[in-house]
Design a protein that fits this description.
By secondary structure, this protein is mainly α. The protein has 8 helices and no strands. Helix 1 (2-12) crosses helix 2. The longest helix is centred in the C-terminal third of the chain and has 27 residues, at 154-180. The protein is globular. It starts with a helix and ends with a helix.
Length: 181
């Protein structure tokens, strides 16, 4: 968190490499977050780019008392909802290869399989549980950051996380049982 704030301060002072570092750190995560809403990789990538263009054009709007990560997700959510309202449609594509870093091929195959199983299980959760579980457990946002990002109360977030994790556990246990039996 502090590293992000330092990078942002350097960006405000004209250090473009700091902005590129922030973008590299969060771009894929923002794309996946947007993808959860709209199920279109191309549109998710475009909207994620829009998030960072917004930061470039409005760099003074960020309040450093909040985490940069939560701020980025809030902008991403806003851009996504605006897109959905504007387009009034949802497109479904199944392309998740962008999430994997360059590693050895065996690690990629193993990680991809596990990651896809987890993403599928999270996708099977009802809205907004799947979004909250993603933000809490994958992106590791705090409950307060999730509240701010999704405009929910702390009790709503806690309840949805509790219920979502229980359902996720059942989904994953069912997969394990189907695999073993």
């Amino acid at each position: 968190m502090e590293e992000d704030k330092k990078l942002y301060r350097r960006f405000l002072n004209g250090d473009n490499e700091s902005f590129e570092h922030i973008m590299n750190k969060y771009m894929e995560k923002i794309i996946y977050f947007i993808y959860k809403f709209i199920k279109s990789m191309d549109v998710a990538e475009d909207l994620a780019q829009d998030v960072f263009v917004y930061i470039l054009m409005n760099k003074e709007k960020y309040d450093s008392k909040y985490s940069l990560k939560a701020y980025l997700y809030t902008i991403a959510k806003s851009k996504t909802l605006n897109y959905i309202k504007r387009e009034n449609k949802i497109t479904y594509l199944k392309d998740n290869d962008y999430l994997f870093n360059e590693e050895e091929i065996e690690d990629i195959i193993f990680d991809k399989e596990q990651s896809q199983n987890l993403k599928i299980a999270i996708d099977n959760l009802p809205e907004p549980q799947n979004q909250i579980i993603y933000l809490a457990d994958i992106e590791e946002l705090s409950y307060k950051e999730i509240c701010n990002t999704l405009n929910m109360s702390l009790s709503q977030v806690k309840t949805l996380i509790y219920r979502g994790r229980r359902k996720l556990k059942k989904i994953l246990m069912k997969e394990v049982n189907n695999y073993n039996g």
